Amino acid sequence: MTTSNPLPEKALRFSIHAVQVCQKMIKQREYVLSKQLLKSATSIGANIEEAKYAQSKRDFLSKMNIALKEASETQYWIKVIRASGYGSDEVWNPLATEAHELTALLVAITKTLKRKLQLENDDHC
């Protein structure tokens, strides 16, 4: 029995959700912050997709680290936009929760892979 990786699908759903929120912001002429959020939010999934075809474990880790950084940046932009008074908790709570979940998954993946790579390096010494 194989288990599929839920991360790419979760990142895709998050990207779509972020696009929808940003489209609403753009309609209300909130261009700068919506662009920042859109770029970082969609970059998470793009880096996860790119990691599928990594040339090595280290390359995979690099892509996952970039996705993690983008997830962290996305959480930052959500905080900034919320603090600036745009939108309601009804809009931002679900997106913030999704961003937090993606970040937690990416932290776990990168920590595990770093540990495995360190063990491999120790075995070769």
Description:
The protein has 125 residues and is mainly α. It has one domain (7-124): Up-down Bundle (de novo design (two linked rop proteins)). The chain has helices spanning 7-27, 31-51, 57-83, 89-124. Helix 1 packs antiparallel against helix 2, helix 2 runs antiparallel to helix 3 and helix 3 packs antiparallel against helix 4. 26% of the residues are buried. The mean pLDDT is 93.
Brief digest:
This protein has helices at residues 7-27, 31-51, 57-83, 89-124.
Q: Give the overall average pLDDT.
A: 93
CATH topology: de novo design (two linked rop proteins)
Q: What global shape is seen?
A: elongated
In terms of DSSP E residues, the strand content is under 5%
Q: Which residues form runs of ≥5 with pLDDT under 50?
A: none
Query: Which class of secondary structure composition applies to the elements?
Result: mainly alpha
Rg result? 16 Å
CATH class: Mainly Alpha
Q: What about the largest sheet?
A: none
Distance between the termini: 35 Å
Helix content: over 70%
Please work out how many helical segments DSSP would assign.
Answer: 4
> At CATH's second level, what is the architecture?
Up-down Bundle
| Element pattern in H and E | HHHH
The CATH superfamily is identified as 23S rRNA-intervening sequence
When the domains are counted, the total is 1
DSSP strand tally: 0
